[in-house]
Specification:
- This protein has 73 residues and is an alpha+beta fold.
- It contains 2 helices and 4 strands.
Length: 73
């Protein structure tokens, strides 16, 4: 949510300043869905490892690829 708001704000500022055209909505959506990196406990390896963290709370271990589910709506 915060990522989407920040990207929208940056896009609007660049457009208002005349420095860049508005990015395509598909490109903006791809950036908003980007994964953040953080360390979390990996159930498969039984230790903290680097993970790709998603907005919904799910994560993927970069070492073994184990997926941990996030919250459901």
């Amino acid at each position: 949510m915060i990522t989407r708001l920040l990207l929208a704000a940056v896009r609007n500022l660049l457009c208002l300043a005349g420095r860049a055209p508005a990015p395509e909505s598909a490109a903006l959506a791809a950036l908003a869905d980007a994964e953040l990196a953080d360390f979390a406990f990996c159930p498969r390896q039984q230790r903290p490892t680097a993970h790709a963290m998603r907005e919904d709370g799910s994560r993927r271990c970069w070492d073994c690829g184990h997926e941990t589910h996030g919250r459901t709506r």
